[in-house]
């Protein structure tokens, strides 16, 4: 598992180089955004269950066929599995936000996920929509906690949707 600093060190060590201007700039930007990252994690933690629940309600309002007979969230077991997945996405996205790096998502969440979803018939498009709804709710929550620029919150959620949507080669 890597964060912004360890991943930079790894890249420079492989090349046997000291930190150059680019490295220093990226270190600066990571440390300057540190307080906002921690504030975001605190804001998410203060209402994680609420965020997941709200995202689920919004998703099923937009795509009601998911909870009708034949839909992938039909039956309470699958409904609960879907919300549990959203909770995983939120928790690991929070780790990635603090780390300033999406490596934790690759290692702990995304590895083999598409294959699992495909074999169970979990639809990717609606899952991606769910993650994007979650992102928007998180950004509102983080903004109302006083973080002025919430653009950095996009990264882990967009990373999840990008990796999930990627076509098979
Ligand atoms: C921490 C990393 C991690 C992830 C990400 C994870 C995902 C994950 N989601 C699963 C199932 C599932 N995932 C969903 C999700 C959905 N269905 C929908 O209609 C919606 C579009 C969507 C929610 C947004 C559903 C319904 C199932 C159960 C499918 C089934 O058993 O038929 C399964 C199969 C095993 C199980 O049911 O628990 C896994 C492994 N597990 C992990 O350990």
Describe the structure in your own words.
- This is Allophycocyanin subunit beta.
- Belongs to the phycobiliprotein family.
- Its main location: membrane.
- The chain has 169 residues and is mainly alpha-helical.
- It has two domains: 32 residues, no CATH class; 131 residues, Phycocyanins (Globin-like, Orthogonal Bundle).
- Helix content is 73%, strand content 0%.
- The chain has nine helices and no strands.
- Helix 4 crosses helix 5, helix 5 packs across helix 9 and helix 8 packs antiparallel against helix 9.
- The two termini are 26 Å apart.
- Bound molecules: phycocyanobilin.
- The site of phycocyanobilin has 19 residues, from helix 5, helix 6, helix 7 and helix 8.
In total, how many beta strands? Answer: 0
Number of domains: 2
Principal-axes geometry comes out as: globular
Q: Roughly how much helix do the residues carry, as a percent range?
A: over 70%
Q: Which molecules are bound besides the chains?
A: phycocyanobilin
Strand content: under 5%
